[in-house]
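Entry 14. Ran structure prediction on the chain below.
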Amino acid sequence: MMAGEYCDIADDLICGKDFKCSSFVRIEKDVVIGDNVTIESFVVVRSGARIGDNVALEEHAVIYSDSTIGSGTKIGIYTKVGKKVVMGENCRFTAFCEIRDNCKLGNNVSMGSRGTLSANTVVEDDVIMKYAFVVTDVPVVGQEEIKSVGTLKKGSRFGANVTIMPGVTVGENSEIGACSQVRYDVPINEVWYGNPAKFFKKREL
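Output, structure tokens:
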């Protein structure tokens, strides 16, 4: 392990080969880190986290307790991964993203900067979310105790500034145009856009 200055690393850390850690990093107890992992300055990894091989955590990222980061994943600058998140392999988060508690993400998921996934969101494999993408979870503003989230199915794609309303599921290989607000479930292999988003055409795959 190669660590920079002013790090606070728990004595029970388990790490693999070629682990590189910059300055001002905090790693709490019961953390396991794989081979060839790079952690940049001011990153915090909370207790119970599991980080796979070939992962990069950029400056000021935070990985909360009991979350799992799959191999080959890049967590961008100022990105927050909540508690008990399960993230697959080869995912990419650009910067200032928030993946809230108990989200489940498949492999090859990508998100542009300033995206947010509400707690308990399910994102399947090969989903692409451009910047300022949001999954919301409160159907009635002011009634924060009532929450609902849907699923982003395999291969779905989302342009910039898309908002997914509470409880909405987007089908496999469907595509949502930029600046859309999605209020209803989207079937498989369709293109929708607008505010509110409406059917435009079938996707030819």
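The mean pLDDT is 96. Will compare against last week's run tomorrow.
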